[in-house]
Amino acid sequence: MTRLPLLAGAALLALASHASATSFVATTDTLGGLIANASESTSDISSSFDDDKVVLAARDDAASFVASAGSIRGARLEAALRHIRTQAPQIQADDQQLARAILAL
């Protein structure tokens, strides 16, 4: 009787490790795609706004925004996002990508 719980536990462990490995692969694939998109946006933004006072003033707010996964939105970051979208409407990036680009300046 003690073998049945042991075998059941081993089977659950095997299933859990397979699911964990599969989700890890899916997560890294997703993150790789996001990083590629973010790096394109970052290069467009950094070449255009690397000496812009409004954008540079938003670096601390951008760091808080990125670290909080978008929960903390400072006034300087909001001003910088509006400024970037006004000055470069061709840049199609979400707020998270723009905040990361600001941090890369």
From TrEMBL:
- Signal peptide feature range: 1-21
Sorted alphabetically, the keyword list is: Signal
Which Pfam families did the record assign? DUF2388
Q: Which domain of life is it from?
A: Bacteria
Name of the featured protein: Holliday junction resolvasome, helicase subunit
Q: Which organism is it from?
A: Pseudomonas linyingensis
